[in-house]
Specification:
heterodimer, A: 401 residues, 4-stranded mixed beta sheet, B: 263 residues, alpha/beta, 10 strands, disordered C terminus
């Protein structure tokens, strides 16, 4: 049904709808429980996981432990490693199984039985470094072990050249000097995409139950039919409802961010706080980016839920949206081109891109904030218009009833 | 006054290849002010669809309906302004109190606070529901829900009232309370239409009956007139004869018109 004489919009009616829906939502214990659980727990959980990860990494590299199978076979190597400040730990017999299961995350150095003899002959000795790449922490630890073995190579090679009266400089036509341009923050942000990702998810899920309640809930209760029989513009109904969903998710996003900020303070590991920039400036940027995004998600979730005749049915539809956002948000992790301009125009990818930038401690331009916000505002308006249109159609209001 | 002329409404087929469902074929009726008119019909006869068209929630494919002279399609806002609707599903908000439920509709219709308080008091007295007002609707019995929904439908003091199966699921006391209220409203000169399939209710309340069968009005008149017309001793007998005679006569619509004169 599409009446030309339908009222267009009334601010007063919108306010009435808003007040009613706010009262209703505030009394919805289920919604509050889920929302508070999500917002209060996500900060501590995310930080606990990431800081644990980094602390373990730090510890093993710092300890400079070299695990070696049968160290008695290679006393010269053991001597070098000890001089280089490492502790040589003999590997247990089942070290391969231990590596696979993740019980052990170092690489294991395996010298051959005739190590010393071959070394004395001056021929090349093959030393195996056994590790399991699928273990997250292995890479860093193995790299440091290999670096130490290369040190041994260099030392022995130089000694041999000198013994033959050759300048060791001949061996190194160029000197390689690593200068890692990734600042300490940038290195941390690479693995800490989980923080903005969690923030995005909160914006998606926070007000989900309220969004469903104000749309599919009306139908399930049978309250939509009498409501629409009032001389009230549909636009006002939709806008009033949306405002409450948006406000609800706003509260949750801000609570979550405060949770993030507080959790940060309790993290003892200096590495994490050095790696990731998450001070009040970043928290403010997070909020400024997430608020328009939450506005969009409120509208999109309501739109999806409007197709549902019951709460349960609506939940199914809304799940598709949530999945899409989650996968889209993960996409930049796999992009080879970082911060391409188009990314700002795609909701959830745009937010994540800028959030990562903020975490890396990079400068955030005005467009970084304005483009994602404008895209969100435009899409939210379109979604709300679509809902209003649907509510004027009897095939939607009375679908399958 | 509610005037309904030859309403026709068909629903699009649900599945590809399925036939369209004709919800109402040809419904006409006249409900006067100060009278209670029943829309009497079996389940699926088209009562709810007819009432939804009157409430401007659906648009008929053909025919006209006017409420207090306002056309339901051309002037929906004028129609909604003077119409109270009690739908089959009461549609209350369970986390709100009874008073808040009613106040919501009052505010949507821009009724001032003082006027709202006065009207609510009058309705609460009539429906004997003062104790319900401060309680949350969650956990209300169907009788209590009906009272709240009815008070909500009447809070703007509409001149016309349509009710879809209002006594569904009500106990004796609630049914009596409803009847009392409807009779009082009728005596105030309001135009009341309600749909039902319960004969006792019709006999106890209605001044006028429109019998609907298979989406068509097959007869309209007072209970006595219908009994006489159909030659049944009771209204039930008359109803069965009217409704099912039409079913038999359906293949030729003109013959139905001959045997069941319509007002």
């Amino acid at each position: 049904m599409h009446h030309s004489s339908d009222l267009r919009f009334s601010a007063r009616t919108t306010g009435v709808v808003l007040r009613k829906e706010a009262t209703d939502a505030l009394r919805d214990r289920r919604a509050w429980f889920v929302a508070l659980a999500i917002s209060l727990l996500s900060g501590p959980i995310v930080f606990l996981l990431t800081s644990n990860f980094i602390a373990g990494l730090e510890e093993q590299v710092a300890r400079r432990e070299v695990v070696m199978a049968h160290p008695e076979m290679a006393p010269t190597l053991v001597n070098f490693l000890q001089r280089a400040g490492a502790t040589v730990v003999p590997a247990t017999d089942d070290y391969q199984a231990a590596l696979r299961s993740g019980r052990m995350q170092n690489g294991v150095v395996v010298p051959p039985a005739d190590f010393e003899a071959r070394l004395a002959r001056g021929s090349t000795v093959t030393v195996d470094v056994v590790f399991d790449e699928s273990q997250d922490k292995a890479q860093a630890v193995v790299r440091s072990t290999v670096r130490m073995l290369e040190g041994f190579n260099r030392e022995l090679g130089v000694q041999r050249l000198i013994a033959r009266g050759v300048s060791p400089q001949l061996l190194a036509p160029i000197a390689i000097n690593d200068i890692n341009l990734a600042s300490a923050n940038a290195r941390g942000a690479r693995l800490l995409f989980i923080v903005p990702w969690a923030a995005l998810i909160v914006a998606v899920f926070g007000a989900l139950s309220v969004a469903i309640d104000v749309s599919a809930g009306e139908r399930e209760r049978g309250s939509l039919e009498p409501l629409l029989a009032n001389p009230v513009p549909t636009a006002s109904l939709v806008l009033g409802k949306w405002a409450v969903v948006f406000a609800f998710s706003l509260i949750i996003v801000v609570l979550t961010m405060v949770g993030f900020a507080i959790s940060m303070r309790f993290i003892s590991g200096e590495t994490l706080s050095a790696l990731m920039q998450l001070q009040w400036r970043e928290i403010t940027i997070f909020c400024a980016l997430l608020i328009p995004f939450a506005a969009l998600m409120a509208a999109v979730n309501m739109l999806a839920a409007t197709f549902g005749r019951t709460y349960k049915e609506a939940q199914t539809y809304v799940t598709y949206i949530a999945m899409a956002v989650q996968f889209a948000a993960l996409a930049p992790v796999f992009f080879t081109v970082r911060d391409a301009p188009w990314q700002l125009f795609v909701p959830s990818i745009g937010q994540l891109t800028v959030l990562m930038k903020a975490l890396r401690g990079e400068a955030i331009g005005a467009l970084d904030m304005l483009i994602p916000a404008a895209v969100c505002a435009a899409l939210a308006a379109a979604a709300l218009a679509a809902i209003a249109h649907m509510l004027r159609r009897e095939t939607v209001v009375f679908s399958r009833s | 006054m509610i005037e309904v002329e030859h309403l026709h409404k068909r629903f699009a087929p649900r599945a590809r290849g399925a036939a369209a469902v004709v919800a109402i074929d040809d419904v006409s009726l006249l409900a006067r002010d100060g009278r209670i008119t029943a829309l009497l019909g079996a389940n699926g006869a088209g009562k709810t669809t007819t009432l939804r068209i009157l409430a401007t929630l659906m648009t008929a494919d053909a025919g006209h309906a006017r409420i207090g002279g306002a056309d339901v399609v051309a002037q929906p806002l004028a129609v909604r302004a003077q119409l109270g609707v009690l739908s089959d599903a009461r549609g209350l908000y369970t986390r709100l109190t009874a008073r808040e439920n009613i106040a919501y509709y009052a505010q949507l219709r821009a009724i001032g606070a003082r006027e709202f308080a006065e009207r609510l008091q009058r309705l609460a007295d009539l429906l004997d529901m003062n104790a319900l007002l401060p309680r949350r609707v969650d956990g209300f019995s169907s009788g209590e829900r009906m009272k709240v929904a009815l008070a909500r439908a009447l809070i703007h003091d509409p001149s016309h009232l349509i009710l879809d199966e209002p006594t569904n699921g009500l106990d004796v006391m609630s049914t009596r309370a409803l009847r009392r209220l409807l009779l009082a409203l009728r005596d105030q000169g309001k135009c009341i239409v309600f749909s039902t399939h319960i004969m006792q209710e019709v006999e106890a309340l209605c001044d006028e009956i429109a019998v609907i069968a298979h989406g068509r009005t097959v007869a309209q008149g007072a209970a006595a007139a219908l009994r006489e017309q159909a030659g049944g001793a009771t209204l039930e007998e008359a109803f069965v004869k009217l409704a099912f005679a039409d079913c038999v006569a359906r293949p030729t619509p003109s013959s139905a018109a001959d045997t069941q004169p319509r007002r």
